[in-house]
Records
---
Amino acid sequence: MLEELRKQVFEANLELNRKGLVVYTWGNVSGIDRGRGLVVIKPSGVDYETMTADQMVVVTLDGETVEGSLRPSSDLPTHLELYRRFPNIGGVAHTHSPFATAWAQAGMEIPCLGTTHADHFYGPVPCARALTQDEVEHEYEHNTGKVIVEAFAGLDPDAVPAVLVSQHGPFTWGKDPMDAVKNSVVLEEVAKMASVALGINPYAKPVPQYLLDKHYFRKHGKNAYYGQV
């Protein structure tokens, strides 16, 4: 079932490892078949070096396993909440990449300090609030998804396809599983750049709106002119 999507999710998970965004069994990527209402996700705690495409787990949007003999990622409820609430996304990735995770542990959004960031994210990458004790003790992973959605009240998840979960780490999403991973790679780069820039100049300011607009919209939207037709 969903052999092509399982291959895509498998390759996207391997790409997390190839790009140095995860170590050991950390991190996970999923993908969704919107037409069938099914999600494919990495199995929990399986090493990237031994993992195979047929080990990817197929689940419903309610979290019921449809196919697969292994347990799905423990972060599955977070992924499912994002799929339910962000209808345009086709893939979700979660890492503990060092610089993005450092910003999450600091509980701070990543400001848009330059055009590299503006090319990809339309404004700062938000940091969701810390979960309460009750939210951690009862349906922790589902509540993680809920605080992410809460952080995007008034924001466009398609224009800023990334978030930091306070004291935890980053989640990204995209049009498909590999696109979600690409956004994780870019997020780690802009997190690193912001860390270094603020180390050089703690008073560095975000780019002005006109520069943000220029760089974001020249690559995104109906009037974009970056790249080839």
Note: The chain is about 40% helix and 15% strand.
---
Amino acid sequence: MSWIDEIEISAAEGRLAEIYPELVAKRGKVANILKVHSLNPDAMSDHLDLYMTLMFGASGLSRAEREAVAVVVSASNDCTYCVNHHAEALRRYIKDEETLTMLMEADGLETFEPRLSNIVRHAEKLTSAPAAMTDTDLGELRAVGLSEKDILDLTLIVAYFNFVNRIALGLGVAFSDDELSGYKDD
């Protein structure tokens, strides 16, 4: 489901034939954003490892905060693939549709409770104006309880989603309603 050739699970050979079953075991299915890597299985494996570490590894950032960052970064980049994927995951944690809509549009971020507001506004600024970042920005994160490691984790997650958004947008990775559901979240 992209603008380049992809290898289907049934046609996988070698390293890819090893990775696809591992991916299904870890995540429940193969997302199109990973399938687009099928011509380079080592990149697919490394990508998955980074994703799992950043989104599911030990961190002072909650799963909801991480998914909110994913949504805001992706909205800031107009990446509908990632906005839709991560908004679906975020719905497990945030039940308020107005809040979800604001995150999906990266709009009204200053209206959230202080911790979430500072986290997502930081993510939006780092995405849209990275050269404008200052130490003061980090002070605002510290003021709402983020540790130095949390700030590093936040920065890595923002950078990761900027990377992934460019893969999705640059290769025309598409989503469907079926593809959005059925992932493992642990």
Note: The domain at 63-171 is CATH 1.20.1290.10 (AhpD-like).
---
Amino acid sequence: MNFKSLLRKVAPYVAFLFYRTLLATWKVEIHESDDLKRCLKNGSQMVYAHWHGDELGLVFLLPRYRASAIVSTSADGEIMDKVVHLLGATTSRGSSTRGGVSAIRGILRLAKDGIRPSVAIDGPKGPRHKAKPGVFEIAKLTGGEIFPLTVTCSKAWTFHKSWNKAYLPKPFARLVVVWGPALPTIPRDVDAHDPSLASRLEIAMAAAEQQARRILAGT
């Protein structure tokens, strides 16, 4: 085994230990909408919708909410895939919007076991904070309501060179997680590319983000 192969093998475990160490220092507040509480109580199928870039502030919640992450098939995706599994959650490999047949199949298979998909809705490559049709296709196929999911934090390292401005909360950061009210289920005959669907979800995401910021600011 050469050095590069060894590094690829070890990297996920190093990333996992570093993340878990940071997580132990964070002060996390979770605010669930009444719709979410209802669906969790009933065991309903749901689709969790979040923005690209927020993953590192949310990934630890996957096991708690019986969620599966869609992880790309890239080299970076390999690391994330292993970290998610080490955290105790599941993944579906592929893209939710481009060539995502394998990801969709994985989601449907997991949904049969009550695992809910968590989707970065502006992926895989943006534009940032613009909802793509993939999340609506997934909602149609699973029959789940879509739940806006946002997080904000008091301090973080931001990866400015990434298109999605991904960030990692710093040690002892305060994180506020907000689940917004549900968007209703989407009938099978509705076109997932309908601009009104994207507009409605973007508005719901913005409202959840504003709520999270107000809570963080103490207003």
Note: The chain has six helices and nine strands.
